Amino acid sequence: MPILNRAHEMQAEVADWRRHLHMHPELMYDVHQTAAFVAGKLRAFGCDEVVTGIGRTGVVGIINGGKGEGETLGFRADMDALPIREETGKDHASTVEGHMHACGHDGHSAMLLGAAQYLAETRNFAGRVAVIFQPAEEGGGGGDAMVRDGMMEKFGIDRVYGMHNMPGLPVGEFAIRAGGFFAATDEFIIRIDGRGGHAAMPDKAIDPIMIGAQIVSALQTITSRNANPIQPLVVSVTKFNAGSAFNVIPQSAEIGGTARSLSKENRELAEARIKAVATGLASAHGAIAEVKWHRGYPVMVNDAAEAEVAAERAGQVAGAHAVHTDFRPTMGGEDFAYMLEARPGAMILIGNGDTAGLHNPKYDFNDEIIPLGISYWAALAESNTARG
């Protein structure tokens, strides 16, 4: 099936929904207006069941197919925005100071709403479709919350799929890969306790800034000298806080950062080496280092068989030539990983064209891709006829 005529017909209306969401961004789990908007649309479409409050503020709509028994497919979109001040200058720019949809979640939700409307109208598939609207993707683990809330069991979801826009990928193209696609996102804080003193008498002090500088440099050797060079790993120090006066060596310093990995082995390696480097160097200088490690989202792993299914359906819509099936992995995180740990499935990327990058204050979702996204979801649902 090519891009659906119905999806073209719906584009303007769905773009209006998207721009409404863009103008009223909400953060993390506090997506109450967004969730109410989504639930209201799903009820108006005639979904067979609409359930709110899954994973605190998530919404799930159930659409029964008209072609008999089959699996229940889960289609997921995210709803939350980012704490960024918008600089697009668009007529539909954010009306909430300091908040904006800088990652396209407004577009993801609008496309899935468009797909839900189409599927509720046609019901040209077997089994059921569960349209999943998730809060708190941007650091809050809303995907995990929905899974822990029993979403998969409650709705009998057998397989689950996600879609995210990708700036720089041309409009009309998709990208996917089997296996690790998005990285695990861990964070660390290193506190160094030395001995404060007069800046003119460094021999009487134990300088946590000097020790911290050595730790920052040494952490860069983890990827270059400890990790397998063909297994991606990123260790980035993003915070270094110490001191408040020109003539005082402070008592302590604090370093913070993130480690990104695409394998369990490198994830464990990064944690072990960061702790060893920090405590070892501090001890060598007579100081004490404490490392606090926060495990974030796990590696998002596309099931190989489901990645193939997703690529085939995208190819039906855009043409096989427009689907990149061995796309480079990203070291960004994605909490759809939790849903893929609970059920087989796959995340696909849809080209947003030549736009500003994700999490950029000048970013905006490209409404031209709405019919393509709706058609992809429809193709996945209608494939359930054969797999039911």
Structure write-up:
With 388 residues, this protein is an alpha/beta fold. The protein folds into 2 domains: 5-182 and 299-387, 3-Layer(aba) Sandwich (Aminopeptidase); 185-294, 2-Layer Sandwich (Alpha-Beta Plaits), CATH 3.30.70. The chain has helices spanning 5-23, 32-45, 105-122, 142-148, 151-154, 208-219, 221-226, 264-284, 304-318, 336-342, 370-382, 384-387; strands at residues 49-54, 58-64, 72-78, 128-134, 159-167, 174-175, 179-182, 184-193, 197-198, 233-242, 248-249, 252-261, 288-294, 300-302, 323-324, 345-353. Strands 1-2-4-3-5-16-6-15 form an 8-stranded mixed β-sheet, with helices on both faces. Helix 6 (208-219) runs antiparallel to helix 8. The two termini are 19 Å apart.
The percentage of residues in β strands lies in: 25-35%
Fourth-level CATH superfamily of the largest domain: Zn peptidases
SS-based class? alpha/beta
> Helical percent range?
25-40%
What gyration radius follows from the Cα positions, in whole Å?
24 Å
Order of helices and strands: HHEEEHEHHEEEEEHHEEEHEEHEHEHH
Summed up, the domain count is 2
Q: Please state the second-level CATH architecture of the largest domain.
A: 3-Layer(aba) Sandwich
How many helix segments? 12
Q: Say how many strands there are.
A: 16
- What is the general shape? elongated
CATH class of the largest domain: Alpha Beta
Task: Sketch the major β-sheet.
Answer: 8 strands, mixed
Q: What is the CATH topology descriptor of the largest domain?
A: Aminopeptidase
Distance between the termini: 19 Å
Q: On the 0-100 scale, what is the average pLDDT?
A: 96
Uncertain segments are none
Side by side, the strands of the main sheet go 1-2-4-3-5-16-6-15
